[in-house]
Amino acid sequence: MKVELRGITKRFPGVIANRNVDLTLIEGEVHTLLGENGAGKSTLMNVLFGLYSATEGEILIDDSPVNFDGPNDAIAAGIGMVHQHFMLVPVFTVTENVMLGVEPTGPLGVLDRDQARKRLLDLSTKYGLEVDPDAYVEDLPVGVQQRVEILKALYRDADLLILDEPTAVLTPQETRDLFEVIKTLKASGRAIVFISHKLKEVLTISDRITVLRRGEVVGQTTPAESDEHALATMMVGREVSFEVEKTPAAPAKAMLEVNKLSVLDDRGQLAVSDVSLDVRAGEIVAIAGVQGNGQTELVEAITGMRKLAGGTVRLDGKDVTGQGPADMFHHGAAHVPEDRQKHGMVGAFPIKDNLVLNSYDEKPFASGIKVERAAVTENAQRLVKDFDIRTPSIDVHIGNLSGGNQQKAIVAREFSQAEVLLIAAQPTRGLDVGSIQYIHEQIVRKRDEGCAVLIVSSELDEVMSLGDRIAVMYRGQILDVVDRADATRDKIGLLMAGSRQKDATA
Amino acid sequence: MNDPQNPKAKEPPSTDVPVEEAVAERARAAGVATQGLDWRNVILVPTLALLAGLFVGALVMVFSDPDTLRSWASLGRNPGKALSDSWTLVYEAYSALFKGSLGSPRAISETIVSATPLIFAGLAVALAFKAGLFNIGAEGQLLVGAMTSVYAGFTFDFLPGPVHVTAALIAGFLGGALWGFIPGFLKARTGAHEVIVTIMLNYIGLLFVNFLLKSEIFIRSGRTDPITKPVAESAKLPPLLGAEYRVNAGFLVALAVAGAIWWLLFRSTVGFRFRTVGTNPNAALYAGMSVGGTYILAMVLSGGLAGLAGASQLLGVQYSVFPGFSSGYGFDAIALALLGRTHPGGVVMAALLFGVLRSGATGMQAATSIPVDIIVVIQALVIVFMAAPELVRQIFRIRADKQAEQDTLSASWAT
Predict the structure, then answer these.
(1) What is the ipTM for the molecules in this complex?
(2) Which domains does chain A show, CATH number per domain?
(3) Omega into A427 within 30° of 0, i.e. cis?
(4) Which residue in chain A is spatially nearest to B284 when comparing CA positions?
(5) Which pLDDT score, from 0 to 100, does residue B398 have?
């Protein structure tokens, strides 16, 4: 199968999201679309998948032009897409999700689950996509849900599989598993479109790389002909540095003292047990660990969003155990939450309101119960400028901004208010190179201003480049806290996998 | 990235990215959607929903009128007659409807009288909705508010006029607030769903009021049928256009309260909290707002507004409480809050519209023998079209605006 996009231009009212894009996708090849957030990668793929119709240009499959009126046409033509946000029914089983829409039926239209299940198992064995067909999707980890999405596409006989930022939600281990799957699919003669902005991954998995910037193709290359630096430059359009520039930490007194903290998760299971940790003023402590080892609950407990099951928290010498988010905020602690859309912002509110989300009722933003709109506006104008939030206006709904700019807005709000402690959970998840670099610089700046900084990240690179000390969490416990100077990728990686080896330094 | 020779360089360079322009475009298209003032969604869709409702209502009239149906039965012989009979029927019905509601000073007065309690009750539902709560209990809150208000109305007769009216209104507010507090408190403390609790409290409120009507404290002396003592003269809301018209100061109070609620929602920290909790309770929790406390306060205020609906009807029109005191104002309120897009300004307009339908219906029945109930059908149809804006857009070919859509409706009417 060969799919060609010729001269695709997609205009939205007053804007061009894709401009004259040519792209050829061939079977047995992994073709990467690389570009920053907002470069037009997803728009292009949505055109191919029939979700949008192109303003100009044509799509050819095996040299004959096709016209997709909707995803159903694309699916019928053998195109499958795994969206960044999964389209699964949480309360259905894996089998039910996979067969949904193309259910095999017996006499009288009775669902033939067994047939679907059998076909699913065949596919699953064939491509190494291990999954329990009878498990409920809501009980599955994200990585497995993604496998279900891929199986869904394969079940519909997809010859071309579009994976939209598939690794954004995965742990390093899950990413490796996914890459194995991609290789098997490639070997079976399928064409794969891999969308990403993570350069290391792109260089590992791609056969061909097309770089998009501002809606246009700015270059095409192969991993052999390119390297991280060249790709980044092409993608961003200017030189970027990967190294976080920072001087050695000058830690002062302990600002955050967590002592024997235990926390339950939503199901009432112990998610954090007996964790003790100090963060001192002027240092960055990075918590490494595979997603789901209690980091989320630990941060929620420290910031007052979740009840403690035991232990104490002290902030700047004061006992703040069990105090709520508002109290923590008043004590000078700021928090960039892990899930920015769920917790960090109100998508349907304008940017200026989101920038006062936790200080809306304080001076100068309020007098009595009256909102001082001039102060809110002034604050927003200042932060938009200081933190380089790219938006046409402070009245735009924050939900309409790109992920990078949403995160910048949250960072702006929290960083401008952090006095004693800054907690940032997954501060750069899903962001592009430019934004990551920017946020890293800001984090280091906060440290140098004398703030105690606690970072949680499942990205090993981020932990290694930011942390002055690195704490590794595994199954609700901190296995070890390592000074940056003594930390190696291997050592941290092993700890993340749960091995508490004593011989690493020996 | 930024060419210094670029003639566009006077624009801020940072926004020079296609997708961000797209964002800007979408934002402009959505108008000042921040406060739901986008005219297309706030005015146009409801208006078209109304037109569609009136049209389908006309069909119902035609096909439920025996004479007109007969002329349709002989369509083959005389097609013109079927059409002209239908047209005459519908024309007469609707012109009687609008004449009966807007055609004379008295008609306008009656329309405003019908609209007044609807404004209060509609604001009640809209306010709760902004905080993410679906208050189905306005009817019960209205009745309880009417009872507390009538009590103040016939008891505190030693107070001078303006003070007494104010006290009776406040009493009505407090009664409704009490009835709203219960579901708010239960939701905050136990998570009990406010829809279930408010529905049940409607029955409890209605039956409790019926019980009180026969009690010593309330029953009018010398009467055995359940009717309360009348409120004192000093507690009556003064008429606006002299004693011959029923329109009274309650309408002005309603408009003032609508203004106050708008201010509260969009200009105060309380409203900021309501709207945050209503749109994203997780973010509210993260930002340190008390979600439970907000639910309680929103229900108390919402109940209080519904209580004012009862009080205004009592002090301005009925002067005493009796069975059937509220002709479903609390339920109409849900519909018109939806029609008004849960915006105070929209609620006032929707309430006036419902007032037109209600007060014109009697005239229509007299003129054409079309039953008053057709009004209920039209109201229901308008709501159906409102609840399915996609349908209205398809019919009238309007471009969709998903953003504003989600702001007002799909967010939590369904949950």
Answers:
(1) 0.79
(2) 2-236 (3.40.50.300), 254-332+418-496 (3.40.50.300)
(3) no
(4) A343
(5) 63
